[in-house]
Amino acid sequence: MHRKRPEGIKDYTGPAGGWGALKAVALTLKAQQIVQRGAQTLLKSNQPDGFDCPSCAWPDPKHTSSFEFCENGAKAVAWESTAKRIGADFFAQHSVAEIWEQSDHWIEGQGRITDPLRYNAETDHYEVVEWDEAFAAIGAGLARLDDPNQAEFYTSGRCSNEAAFLYQLFARLYGTNNFPDCSNMCHEATSVGLPQSIGIGKGTVSLEDFDHADLILSIGHNPGTNHPRMMATLREVARRGGRIIVFNPLKERSLERFESPQSVIEMATFSATPIATNYLQVKVGGDAAALKGIAKALVAMDKAATAAGEPAVLDHAFIAEHTAGFDALVANLEGSDWADIVHASGLGQSDLEEVARLYAQSTATIACYGMGITQHRTGTSNVQQIANLLLLRGNMGRPGAGICPLRGHSNVQGDRTVGITERPTAALLDKIKEVFAFEPPRAHGHSVVESIAAMRDGKAKAIVCLGGNLAIASSDPQACAQGFRNMELAVHITTKLNRTQLLMAKGDTYILPCLGRTERDLQDGTPQAVTVEDSMSMVHASRGFLMPPGDNVRSEPWIVAHIAKATLGGKGGIDWDGYVANYDLIRDKIEAVFPAFKDYNNRIREPGGFHLPNSAAERVWNTDTGKANFIVSPGVEEDETTADPTVMRLTTLRSHDQYNTTIYALDDRYRGVFGRRDILFMNAKEIARLGFAEGDVIDVTTALQFKRDDRIVQGLTLVEHALPDGCCASYYPETQPLIALEDHDLQSLTPSYKSVPVQIRPAGPDDGTERLVARAGVIGRSVEPKG
Ligand SMILES: Nc1nc2c(c(=O)[nH]1)N[C@H]1C(S)=C(S)[C@@H](COP(=O)(O)OP(=O)(O)OC[C@H]3O[C@@H](n4cnc5c(=O)[nH]c(N)nc54)[C@H](O)[C@@H]3O)O[C@H]1N2
Ligand SMILES: Nc1nc2c(c(=O)[nH]1)N[C@H]1C(S)=C(S)[C@@H](COP(=O)(O)OP(=O)(O)OC[C@H]3O[C@@H](n4cnc5c(=O)[nH]c(N)nc54)[C@H](O)[C@@H]3O)O[C@H]1N2
Ligand SMILES: [Mo]
What sequence ranges are listed for the domain Molybdopterin oxidoreductase (predicted)? Predict the structure, then answer.
């Protein structure tokens, strides 16, 4: 039967990857006007003498293999190495109010910024400023604050270990631990949850472990889009007969079928590899219940086996030697009710029992997870339940087994490792004190939601952003806009223009243009390498080789060091100039503070770099009990339950053509969406139940606890998609206005971007309020222009 779909919506029937991926790259290189140079650049991506791909944090096989083709890595590289530039002319031509009127896609698409800029409120234009003048004003502005805790130092996870280390040193010497970081919106639930469970806030597996695993649990992540190089690994597992069990409310194409652009045969014969052996469409926010159900079934199977004199299902020797809290966990699991589990997860009891059976048969299991797990009100607890499940069968710290959080930004893990943390341990601060001979501030600082609240409420007065697009990436754009406009000083260290930089501080706003990963970084005539850490704790060097986008663009370490000098003068006796002249000296200090980086400068000169030690992978448990802890999750429901059947749970997704707030293009190929983003996915039955039809234009409002008149996204088109009942999905960041700043995981403060209670109603007239990211599809069009 053929039915008419809304404009731009098609049924996508092919596998993920394949020729479509190659075609997409060709188009991207063309759009960035770098067809020739771009192709050469891509060949240097993730090579031992090349740069680390700025797209994701998935590791490389030894980092020395031949070029691995990755569509979205190619887009990220092309986007950075674009031939387009914006300098003095562009900013003289366009006022901030004019730029504001454009979509975010247009704003970032103008190209690389070539000069430092200062905003002139009288003319409403950014104007080119000399570096020295900018630093003097920024330094004076920071030095002027009554209390260093009135300043916020944001980091986005693209910056190198070297830049991040200097940044935290500077902010701590200045006097604060206010380090809001993109990780607070991403894997914070991992960083908070796993130390309690297994004594380290990182994954425990290496890439080689995937060769030994016979079961992969893939929970709440979309690797075909966000970690495409992982598809090669999953494809290998599938081809050698390993099982892959997926938990995802959406049927993501790459997890169903994948055609490797690396494989000549698959490409020529259009024969894709099936990936998931079992695909469980869990309800949005239903993972806690699902994981509990599997663990409950496993415990029941174990009891039954013991009673029947058969081999145990649980690894009792491991549990006895290595864990604490087992009895409490079992009591909680046995006390929980299958009806509640089935209701909250949206999965059948028999489905979950089947997963438990398959898990019991596996000799080595890896659990991978992403934002579908962490960005919930119960994010931390979700992560801990994955750990529980692995611990029940001793799947931690042995070959082919372990936990694998898929990190976001290419160096978000490294930034954390080298000290970007708002809740530093006493041990870290003691080490900094010992190495640099000053007393760092001890009080914990602000994470992202705490910073935005402080800015909104007038408690913070200055912000420095080392990359990112904070006001658009954060929840609650209303609070963000207010917050940035309250600032006496805002400084953006950036490659490109974005909307956060158009929220003018009431005092001064500066933009400082920096080099990207792909570019040559010369200091005193000597090329410098930086280092990064991937999702599996491998640290390696990255060397750009492209010409910088302009003579007046500087490296991140150089910019951070100059802000530090201008703010602190000689305080602390730090040789900022010396560090910038030779990044080896920064690495020596990183090694002095973090002994795990032993012999840092030598080891990064080895191809492939080196592996940071991982205690849990060695079955050393740095927890309060000295054992791995089973941690009970009290309930199964994430939200206050509501009897109101019109309340749906919204999850916010990345399309295939975006990198976080950067929108490369308007297609989401594998989900069958072309040329638009202004849609709300829901299943056909639910659309009808709520009294609508596919193609209807609707407004979405926040429901329940955080309902407020201005929490609305207007003008989305309903599109049928096979989601579970009670759930809907739309794109990030257009849906940010629906998410209250206070709606976050209680433990880690990660915003609950993936479980927003909402209601829908027929589209009304534009309500006229100014919005940062309203009007999906025309991202960022504000109704009342204001700079
Ligand atoms: N090309 C590209 N690469 C990227 C990025 C990018 O934007 N573009 N972003 C980078 C960053 S910073 C990050 S953090 C990672 C993000 O990578 P992912 O973790 O894959 O992030 P998302 O796209 O947000 O989507 C997660 C998946 O979770 C599913 N999901 C949604 N809600 C739930 C739920 O309640 N339960 C379960 N089980 N699943 C759910 C969605 O259907 C989707 O498939 O990727 C990194 N790599
Ligand atoms: N609703 C919803 N919101 C979310 C999410 C979600 O799934 N749903 N995901 C969250 C997640 S996981 C994350 S990590 C955050 C992302 O939050 P951010 O990291 O703040 O956002 P990005 O969009 O990655 O930042 C892009 C900007 O970084 C700058 N940039 C790019 N390359 C460089 C560089 O090399 N150096 C410097 N200095 N600047 C550079 C450019 O100006 C670009 O505009 O968003 C979060 N927000
Ligand atoms: Mo992220």
Answer: 112-519
Q: Mind listing the pLDDT tens digit for each residue in 269-292?
A: 667 888 899 999 999 999 999 999
Specify whether the CB–CB gap between 55 and 73 falls below 8 A. yes
Closest to 470 in 3D by CA, of 772, 722, 43: 772
> What is the spatial distance between Cα 353 and Cα 238, in angstroms, rounded to a whole number?
22
pLDDT score recorded for residue 28: 79
* pLDDT given for residue 65 in this prediction: 46
What residues form DSSP beta bridges with 730? 652
Mutate to test the pocket of ligand 2, among 182, 649, 653, 754 (most ligand atoms within 8 A of CB): 182
325-378 residue pLDDT tens:
999 999 999 999 999 999 999 999 999 999 999 999 999 999 999 999 999 999
The CATH number of the domain holding residue 652 is 2.40.40.20
> Mean pLDDT score of the chain, rounded to an integer?
91
The verdict on whether omega for the bond into residue 733 sits within 30 degrees of 0, i.e. cis, is yes
Q: Are residues 316 and 422 in the same domain?
A: no
Quickly state the pLDDT bin for 188 (edges 50, 70, 90). very high
Q: What is the pLDDT of residue 768?
A: 67
Centre of ligand 2 to C-alpha 719, Å, is: 27
Rounded Cα gap, residues 429 and 594, in angstroms: 11
**In the predicted model, is pLDDT for residue 695 greater than 70?**
yes
Q: Give residues (CB < 6 A) around ligand 1.
A: 55-56, 72, 186, 219-222, 225-226, 247-250, 252, 282, 284-285, 287, 370-372, 406, 408-409, 651, 653-654, 658-660, 754
- Alpha carbons 627 and 473: distance in angstroms, whole number: 37
Give the residue-averaged pLDDT of 737-757.
96
Residues 531 and 554 in one domain: yes
Pocket test for ligand 2, best of 158, 373, 649, 657 (most atoms within 8 A of CB): 158
385 CB-near residues (< 8 Å, 6+ apart): 287, 288, 291, 292, 295, 631, 633
Cα–Cα distance, 624 to 562 (Å, whole number)? 41
**Residue among 229, 220, 205, 283 at smallest CA distance from 252:** 220
- Give residue 110's domain range: 85-184+411-607
User: What's the confidence (pLDDT) of residue 157?
Assistant: 92
Please report which residue ranges of 583-728 form alpha helices under DSSP H: 583-593, 600-603, 684-689
Give the Å distance between the CA of 469 and the centre of ligand 2: 5
Judge if 254 and 394 occupy the same domain: yes
Residues 6+ apart with CB under 8 A from 485: 503, 504, 505, 506
Q: How far is the CA of 660 from the centre of ligand 3 (A)?
A: 8
Taking residues 546-560, report their average pLDDT: 96
Is any ligand 2 atom within 6 A of the Cβ of residue 182? yes
Parallel, antiparallel or unpaired: strands 489-494 and 462-466 = parallel
Give the CATH number of the domain where residue 368 resides: 3.40.228.10
- Number of Cβ atoms within 10 Å of the Cβ of 195: 18
CA-proximal residue: ligand 2, atom 35 (nearest): 516
Q: Are 192 and 457 in contact (CB under 8 A)?
A: no
Q: Are the CB atoms for 227 and 73 separated by under 8 Å?
A: no
Q: How many domains is the chain partitioned into structurally?
A: 4
**Backbone phi, then psi, for 701, in 5-degree steps?**
-125, 155
pLDDT given for residue 775 in this prediction: 42
> If you measure from the C-alpha of residue 67 to the centroid of ligand 3, how many angstroms do you get, rounded to a whole number?
25
Residue nearest to atom 4 of ligand 1 (CA): 226
From the CA of 731, which ligand is nearest?
2
Is residue 180 domain-resident? yes
What average pLDDT does range 549-561 have in this prediction? 97
- CB of 661 within 6 A of ligand 2: the answer is yes
201 and 157 fall within a common domain: no
Radius of gyration in angstroms for the set of CA atoms belonging to the chain, rounded to a whole number: 25
548 CB-near residues (< 8 Å, 6+ apart): 515, 519, 520
